[in-house]
Specification:
Shape: globular
Length: about 700
């Protein structure tokens, strides 16, 4: 794995990290990053309009909608920081490995990694010919996924190699949409028009293709060019109306008596639904041996077009919807030097540069207003960093390590517009920060390692485009962590344990104010807990995988108003109503999570059959800093069953599977909109029961 920017085993890496190989992901029918939420401790993922909400240990990007803010979890694909990771979260294309790093990664993966980092590493071209295909079909609803690849040399010497991969993901839609086009009731604005709503939502229609060429003229140098195209042409998520945040708050008159659907039957009334995402990226990676070390140079260009139209009330009425358009161009470069790994003193030196041009247009028609709320912005973001990390081994067992990083971030608003206000004053923010890490590790035996470290993290400040909210401050945190990783009971038990205590200052929190999002800074927050990942193999044919986490994540000091409940709260001297949220639980931070799976191998003359069962459970979690019941998910668990076949030469695989066997309906997100829109609590749900079969052939 490469969580430390070197090839090391999890046992020897002093980081709380979970790694999943491509073979393991395929066997578990893991087709997207969202499928890792169950087995991975303290990982949460949900959709939020035109962005993806990824949270690790309770830190993420909340209900981020408007441009001007960044996520708290850094996502890298093929070594490239991705500012717009929506497509990455919905599909895995020819993946070699996925790594989930928990806690602030303020040295090696420093940009906006206060919560953690996720690395997605694709398979590279090979000097031998390899090819394969995987097909998955399912029912209720109908679905079909297929993946294929071919890899091998382009010349007799193997100096030139190439790899071509392609994938498509389709499902008809987990939720039936019962809405039909209709007009407003008398007395309401006619500024909304409905599209022809699809009869299915929560669907998938994704395609992606990746081509790579690698040139390796010698053992000391290689160059690899990667070109990728992805798209999603679906109807988007279903939106369910859950009510209002306070029983005394009535629904807007236009919604009273309107049908709202049925979650247990996965039926909804949405007048709008459109999801169009296209992404392209080109990466050039150069590696060469220089002296006793290695140099890596990476250059990347990526662009993304995102267009989402989403129902805003979850009923058969035409009250409101949101139309989001994002267009981004991203440039990323990194230079990395890694010293010889076999010396007592090893080090890594690096620098990187990031620049993004983003154009955003948002339209939010509301039945009570004479015309839509239209917001527009053009924002340029520039960031660069210099970093280093070193380790010294006093003995083969005892080591100390330290890292240092300087990061500079700048955001400039070139054009900010709100049609109810006009052209807004130009905004810009600029901040710099030094983050660091110090620690020690010790190998108690060849199969048991422990570590203790202290690390700091930083996420740049920004502003909320389209509104008059003031700029918000950078987010900073520190983390004291201890871990133990080892093999026990004659290697029958593998266990990775981590305990941590994190302090946050100026934690960035998203709130929907009016028809847009604004980011406010919570004064302080404290997060602590522990994580356990184990693999138990009492006999060769039987394997248990058990992971769990305890997470205590609360605000220490946070006093803020609730745009959905402007008439509630205590009155401050300035006349503003605010809530005292001291002690409230952070969003996306369940106190307990457990995943337990058992797998039994039955040998056959041609290979083996593996019977598998896994149960994933999480305690109650909130989606809002206000900890209100309507914006929460009660404790829930899901049962997955599988029967996998693998031939003796590992070329042929087949499976039967059932995910979420009991058809548990679990919320993936709840957004409470402002009083301007009616203080509506709108939810989205994770997939219900899925039943299917797969077949794969790999040579």
């Amino acid at each position: 794995m490469t969580a430390s920017r070197r090839s090391e085993t999890i046992l020897k890496t002093p980081i709380a990290v979970s790694a999943y190989s491509g073979d393991r992901l395929r066997a578990a029918q893991t087709v997207a990053l969202t499928d890792l939420v169950g087995p991975n401790p303290n990982l949460q993922i949900g959709n939020s309009y035109n962005s993806a909400n990824v949270a690790i240990r309770g830190i993420g990007n909340g209900s981020s909608i408007n441009a001007g803010s960044d996520a708290g979890v850094s996502i890298q694909v093929d070594g490239v920081y991705m500012a717009q990771p929506l497509l990455t979260l919905s599909t895995f294309l020819d993946v070699a490995r996925v790594e989930v790093l928990r806690g602030p990664q303020g040295t090696l993966f420093g940009r906006n990694a206060t919560g953690g980092a996720i690395n997605i590493i694709p398979n590279e071209p090979t000097k031998d010919v390899h090819y394969g295909i995987d097909i998955t079909a399912g029912i209720d609803p109908g679905r079909i996924n297929s993946t294929g690849y071919i890899s091998g040399p382009l010349d007799a010497s193997g100096t030139w190699t190439a790899r071509l991969s392609a994938q498509q993901t389709y499902n008809r839609g987990y939720t039936r949409n019962l809405a039909t086009p209709q007009n407003y009731a008398p007395g309401y604005s006619d500024n909304l028009v409905t599209t022809n709503p699809s009869n299915r939502l929560d669907d998938a229609n994704n395609q992606s293709v990746r081509g790579q060429i690698k040139w390796e003229p010698s053992d000391s140098f290689n160059a690899r060019l990667l070109v990728e195209y992805q798209r999603d042409h679906s109807d988007g998520p279903a939106v369910f109306l859950e009510g209002t945040p306070d029983p005394a708050q009535p629904l807007p008159a236009i919604l009273v008596g309107q049908p709202t659907g049925n979650v247990s039957k996965r039926e909804v009334y949405n007048n709008e639904g459109l999801r169009r995402i296209e992404g392209k990226n080109v990466n050039l990676t150069l590696n060469w041996a220089l002296g006793s070390g290695n140099v890596k140079m990476l250059g990347s260009y990526a662009d993304a077009d995102i267009h989402n139209i989403q129902d805003g009330d979850g009923t058969g009425a035409l009250h409101t919807y949101s139309d989001f358009k994002n267009r981004t161009h991203q440039y990323y470069g990194e230079l990395l030097y890694t010293s010889e790994p076999d010396k007592p003193f090893t080090y890594i030196l690096g620098s990187n540069f990031f620049h993004e041009k983003l154009k955003q247009d948002i339209s939010v028609p509301i039945s009570l207003l004479p015309m839509p709320v239209d917001l527009g912005a053009r924002i340029n973001t520039t960031s660069y960093a210099f970093f280093g990390h070193a380790q010294y081994a006093f003995t083969p067992e005892a080591k100390i390590f330290a890292g240092l990083r300087y990061t500079h971030d700048k955001k400039v608003d070139l054009d900010d517009y709100n049609n109810y206000i006009g052209i807004l004053p130009r905004q810009s923010t600029s901040s710099s920060e030094i983050t660091y890490e110090v620690g020690t590790s010790y190998a108690f035996s060849p199969t048991l390692d422990g570590y203790v470290k202290y690390a700091t993290g930083y996420k740049g400040g920004g502003f909320s485009a389209g509104g008059l909210a003031p700029a918000f401050n950078p987010e900073k945190n520190s983390n004291l962590e201890a871990g133990l990783k080892g093999l026990f009971l004659n290697r029958a038990l593998q266990a990775n344990l981590a305990a941590f205590h994190m302090k946050y200052k100026d934690l960035q929190v998203n709130q929907i104010n009016g028809a847009s999002t604004q980011v406010v800074n919570a004064a302080k927050a404290t997060i602590y807990g522990f994580e356990v990942e184990t693999v138990i193999r009492p006999i060769e044919a039987l394997r248990f995988e058990v992971s769990g986490a305890y997470l205590h994540a609360t605000f220490d000091r946070f006093r803020t108003g609730d745009p959905a409940r402007p008439d509630l709260g205590t009155i401050d001297p300035d006349g503003t109503r605010r809530f005292d949220l001291d002690g409230n639980t952070l969003p996306q931070a369940p106190k307990f999570s457990v995943s337990a799976g058992g797998y039994y191998d039955v040998p056959l003359s041609s290979g083996k059959i593996t019977l598998g069962a896994r149960y994933d459970w999480k305690s109650k979690l909130y989606f809002s800093e206000f900890n209100i019941p309507v914006s929460s998910q009660a404790a829930a668990g899901k049962l997955n069953l599988s029967l996998n076949y693998e031939s003796a030469d590992r070329r042929v695989t087949a499976s039967l599977f059932a995910k979420n066997v009991t058809n548990k309906q679990v919320r993936s997100n709840v957004i409470v909109v402002s009083a301007l829109i009616g203080s509506l609590a709108l939810s989205q749900y994770q997939p219900p029961r899925q039943i299917g079969a797969s077949f794969g052939y790999h040579f």
